[in-house]
Amino acid sequence: METAGSKFSTEFRQIIADQQQANLERLLTYKNYMPITYEEFKMLLTNISERILLRRSVKRQFEIDKNNGPVIKQLYLYLTNNPQCEWNLNAGINFGGNVGCGKSVLMMAFIEISNQYTRRLTTSLHSKQL
Predict the structure, then answer these.
(1) Which of 104, 30, 84, 37 lies closest to 93 in space, CA to CA?
(2) Under a CB-based contact definition with an 8 Å cutoff, are residues 120 and 114 in contact?
(3) Cα 16 to chain center, whole Å?
(4) What pLDDT does residue 51 have?
(5) Are 31 and 119 within 8 A, CB to CB?
(6) 124: burial class by Cβ within 10 Å (0-12, 13-18, 19+)?
(7) Which helix (H) or strand (E) holds 103?
(8) How far is Cα 107 from Cα 130, in angstroms, rounded to an integer?
């Protein structure tokens, strides 16, 4: 037999759960205001990266391969605020790696895409600035 107190408690818990779900949905849609597919993201990232390489007088094409492909996929999931992203969606991004492996080019291209497709303004700091 359900008492008045337990009925109130059940209804209250449901109201709280509904509010939490609504807040989560609002958060997920807030950060990204223009939908972008993974294929569009890869094409934009490649084009912007090649433009950055040309500005640096590097005469080679930017390639998505087995080394950077998983990172690029996670960048896309991060950009679109997808819960499948393995990274913390509420934290910043920090890359490390050998000199010349493409970290800066990748991040500069990502920041440009992010600033165009989201409501966030992303800035980049070089470790020398810390």
Answers:
(1) 104
(2) yes
(3) 28
(4) 93
(5) yes
(6) exposed
(7) helix 103-117
(8) 17
In the chain, % of residues over pLDDT 70: 84
Cα of 104 vs its chain's centroid, Å: 16
- Quick check: 80 and 32 in contact, CB under 8 A? yes
Contacts of 49 (CB under 8 A, 6+ apart): 62, 102, 105, 106, 108, 109
3-state secondary structure of 85: coil
Q: Specify the length of the chain in residues.
A: 130
Has this prediction a pTM greater than 0.90?
no
- Per-residue pLDDT band for 70 (boundaries 50, 70, 90) equals very high
Tokens 């165009």 belong to 116
